[in-house]
Amino acid sequence: MRKYIYKSIGLVLAITTFSSCLKDDSLVLDPDKGVNVIEFVNPTDIAVHGSTTALYTLAYEILPTATVQTIAVSYSGPEKVAPQDIEVNFGLGTQSVIDQYNTEQGKTGAVGTANAPYSFLPSNVYTLSATKVVIPKGQSKASFTIAFKTNLLVVGVPYALPLKITSVSYGTISGNFSNILLNVVPKNKYDGVYNVKGTMVDVTNPAFSHYTVGLGSTVYQMQLRTVTATSCVVYDPKYFNGGGYFVPFYTGSATSSFGSFCPIIEFGSDGKVVGVTNHYGVDVSSNVRNAVLVPDAAGNQYTAATKTMKIKYALTQKAGINPPLAAPFYRAVFDETWVFNGQRP
After folding, report:
1. Which branch of life, at top level (predicted)?
2. Do 31 and 176 belong to one domain?
């Protein structure tokens, strides 16, 4: 009997040790743990889960007046609400937090590309309403605001504003969410949510088709997200884990997507779509994939008055197909119409 007890104890210890190594991306703490924790509340979804410091992307229209963003701090503990008034002091984080995030995420590209490193938001662009708030007794949150002058931002430059909780009058400062990064993005005029319809033809499998087929619908909502003043990357807000940089398609029985493939669309000053590149790089992965614009006399244009885009683009693949494809290596061709639906969050 004793040996089974030892085995049970060992198993419990192993599970406990393993669990303690997992990074907690949740803001909901276990009250039974008896810890009073003060932390920032998620202002939106975390951009990359598992990062040392949580980064949140906040995209705004470029306006002549300041855009105000509310940021909250919260109390979590054995009681559902704060047992007393809790003073929370906070301020700006340091450049080292941004540098660490850039290193972790491999942000080493040139400015204007999707892989450019984040830089500290200039001080003339933002104003904090306070550097101290009080979570009142009987409540669980307190908030402050940050006013952003979006007309001073340079479109295409990835800005980050680090915030840090410096002290609290009661409780413990959170280990995961006492430091956060706000990625402040000015939107270009193409940025937004679009209703998309169209066709897709895959030369390797005739069963593959446009993702609207699998939905049983003629349109599907996608996003264009600002990269530079004249380019946007395609973003699916729904599919894998609630969103990501890819283009879903229908296999004939389920929804899927091509790895290492997501278009960045370049717009010209004459109302034309002038180019497509791959968010993941040129000729990437073992399949040597890329994204390119397909010449099309009837399409590849953007009508500013109605915010409607007609575009034909392709996934090219130079390896992993037998027999190999001949130039221009079109594996799958998308022929689509995008109609503006509204501003994205």
Report:
1. Bacteria
2. yes
